[in-house]
Amino acid sequence: MTAVAIEIRVLELTDLTAIEAIEQKAYPTPWSRSMFASELAKPTSICLGAFEGQDLVGYVINSRYVDAWHVMNVAVDPEHQRRGVAAALLERLFELTRDDERRGYTLEVRVSNEDAIRLYERLGFESRGIRRGYYTDNREDAVIMWRDARHSA
Question: Is the predicted pLDDT of residue 1 greater than 60, yes or no?
Answer without folding.
Answer: no
